[in-house]
Design brief:
By secondary structure, this protein is α+β, with helices and mostly antiparallel strands. The protein folds into 3 domains: 63 residues, no CATH class; 133 residues, no CATH class; 99 residues, Orthogonal Bundle (Arc Repressor Mutant, subunit A), CATH 1.10.10.60. Helix content is 53%, strand content 9%. The strands form 2 sheets. Strands 3-4-7-5-6 form a 5-stranded mixed sheet, with helices on one face. A hairpin with a 2-residue loop joins strand 3 and strand 4. Helix 4 runs parallel beside helix 8 and helix 5 packs antiparallel against helix 6. It is globular. The protein starts with 5 loop residues before the first strand and ends with a helix.
Amino acid sequence: MLHSHLTTLNAVSLVLSTFKAEGLPSEALLAGSGIRAADLSRADTRITTNQEMRVCANAVAIRREIGLELGRRMHVSSYGMLGYALLTSATLGDALRLALRYPALLGTLFELSLSLEDGAVWFCAAGYRENPQLAVFNTELCLASLKVICEDLLGRPLPLLGARFAHPAPDYHARYADNFDCPHAFQAPDNAFGFALHWLDMPLPLADAVTHQAMAERCRKQNLEFTGRQSWLDRIRQLLAAQLHAAPGLEGLAQQMNCSPRTLRRHLHDMGCSYQMLLDDLRFERAKLLLNETEWPIYRIADTLGFSETASFRHAFVRWSGVSPSQFRA
């Protein structure tokens, strides 16, 4: 099953603003995600990774190389409290090590690390577990945005020694030079960019010990709250995932969570989702798994997911993915 966790609206908002200049309505990009335009005005709204990926898939369908452009626009200010903590760190190394402590606040889909190789530092992104069809997009977005963050912190360009990507070179690979002015390697063992070791000790122009200490403490508390809400959501997903054939409904799920339906509904709303959105999310994940890894007929998959009619499942799958189950399987 695909991994799904809570994240912020940063990437979604960036996608919408990028295409707004071209006159593309937000409804086209939000289609199938369950995200409403009204949700974008709430700074504390949380969405699932699958919702974010639905918006990104809509964007990639319009422009395949959009990950590179979005990465260039994902500045350190996009990360709220964590962004301020990074900016006020003493050195670039201090800032990057702080960022690695809070992957939940970064909203990354990768496991990030710093490694030393032949006297150079490589900022690595590994462990991608989301939609494989968006792996190239997410890699481009991740590495491009990490480079932008480094340059925002330094207040100057960061000279790169090289960049490497696990995927084959796309047909638009010449555009990589706009983000990575260095030698490129494709079909590499990992995704990373490298720079000289001395940059880790470079003092940051906005360093402020007092402000940094206050922001770092707020990041710690925010991370505890965020991961606590994630654990609660994971428990809900586990319960629902085990009952897709006969979903318990909001009232039944609340009873299993030992809370009232009203409390459950409020908590889900605070996390930017609903019972139906989570159920659809899990059904979509399971449907893709069954379509890819089994030869079950469509009617059997529909029944397994709790649909009383095969036609209802087909309509739902088209809403989720933009294609029919048989087209997805093909």
